[in-house]
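Figure 3 (text version): structure tokens given as input.
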């Protein structure tokens, strides 16, 4: 998968670092062992953060700043990395969706980044471009219906938008029949070491809970070409 960052994003978010991880997997409806890890993570974060100190996490603070730079209100269109931990801090457990989605949410909470998860076989074409949403651009958020993505960072394939930090698109969502997956770790704070660590944690989770194999990890920065790992 070839991933490009538009000039508009590079200009407004010059520190952006993205990890793209693909794998072959076997998904499942639920995994008790994974949920034990999720529940322990929830306990740890309730002891560590409050709704106010949460905003100080570098990945969350930088994503909010990126929204503001692009003209979007991060409190109204809350990025998923913030929304997930806020739900945890409210004493609510994460939604149980399926194993691949659930492990993506765990990695997001652990590392503080918004992570897009996609069925690779539902993406149109072999390239994605990260740009900015336009007024009136059609987009159906997962479980949200029509979403106004104007001013949001958005990954587009040949057909249109598939992912924003607020919500991914129904068209390319991960399902129980997903056999090839793409995860995108969005590090607007520019911390490449932590972005890579998050991607490697996703690889570990997929190996452990989703029979993950044939991994490919690529990391790119807004200011530099794609690099392989």
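Below: residues designed for each position.
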């Amino acid at each position: 998968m070839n991933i490009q960052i538009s000039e508009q994003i590079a200009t407004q978010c010059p520190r952006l670092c993205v990890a793209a991880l693909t794998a072959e997997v076997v998904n499942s409806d639920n995994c008790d062992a994974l949920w034990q890890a999720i529940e322990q993570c929830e306990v740890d974060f309730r002891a560590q953060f409050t709704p106010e100190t949460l905003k100080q996490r570098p990945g969350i603070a930088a994503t909010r700043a990126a929204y503001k730079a692009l003209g979007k209100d991060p409190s109204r269109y809350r990025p998923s990395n913030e929304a997930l931990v806020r739900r945890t801090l409210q004493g609510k457990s994460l939604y149980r969706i399926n194993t691949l989605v659930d492990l993506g949410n765990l990695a997001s909470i652990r590392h503080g980044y918004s992570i897009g998860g996609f069925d690779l076989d539902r993406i149109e074409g072999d390239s994605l471009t990260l740009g900015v949403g336009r007024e009136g651009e059609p987009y159906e958020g997962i479980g949200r219906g029509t979403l106004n993505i104007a001013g949001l960072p958005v990954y587009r394939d040949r057909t249109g938008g598939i992912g924003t930090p607020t919500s991914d698109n129904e068209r390319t969502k991960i399902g129980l029949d997903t056999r090839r997956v793409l995860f995108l770790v969005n590090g607007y704070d520019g911390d490449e070491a932590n972005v890579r660590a998050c991607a490697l944690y996703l690889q570990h989770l997929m190996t452990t809970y989703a029979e993950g194999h044939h991994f490919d990890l690529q990391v790119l920065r807004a200011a530099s070409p794609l690099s392989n790992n």
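The longest helix spans residues 192-209.
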